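Team,

Forwarding the record for the chain on the shared tracking sheet. I've put the sequence and predicted structure together so nobody has to dig through attachments.
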Amino acid sequence: MGDGDGWAGCDLGHTHWGRFGAAGLLAYHRDPDGQAWILLQQRAWWGIGGGTWGMFGGALHSHEDPVTGALRETTEECTLDTGLVTVHGTSVEDHGGWTFTSVLGSLAERPPVGAASRETRRAEWVRAEEVTDRKLFAPFARSWPRLRDAMRGLVLVVDAANVVGARADGWWKDRAGANARLRDDLKALDAGVLGVPGGLVSFDRCFPEVVLVVEGAARGVADAPANGVRVVAAPGSGDDRIVDLVSGAGPDAAHLVVTADRELRARCEAAGAAVVGPRWLLDRL
């Protein structure tokens, strides 16, 4: 029993399980044919919404953030190895004084998953278009249309030369060092990003894949440990490499390029990517 287990009220006059709110994991996999599969839990007959289907989740403890809590609850309720989940973002349903946070994450494979506690009757991978064929847990049924449209990650592609030039930190004396500092500063995005522009992704908080594209004298930055940031050394023009990266994006990812270069902006937008200026990124570091 954790300190979050218990009932709580909200400003709408409802009673919810979870003294500090609750969170759940919507885990999905997209196969090579583009078919999206959703991992669903059938709730035990004796519990709330017995026999209905929804995502794995439960009450948050006082010391937990929603992502940690959703992954913990999933581990307690089924056999999925949550270490295989790439978390892309969170979506919050606010009832006033009580919140439920949906954590969306993808898996590269679709492993067999079974029940791991008395709270779970069955676990099953279900085709996305067949989710509504099940008798759904009422709160999940309300949120499913919104979550279905949010199943894509964000790839944040950073034009290193352009962003470095927007910071007055002596980059003109040591371009490679300035690029390395930017690479290390991007680690701050691990905590999540708010305010992704233009409805590019449907998350309240987004956890992007970060790609830093370096060129020229800064290419050596790609050889050092990147702390989760993928550093791509352009063999020639950094702009050309960025356009290559954002071209032909599939349904699993949206691309957001950070640059103030007008020509690169036009090329990226023509390739289907969105673009923001360096100030948007620097305000979040």
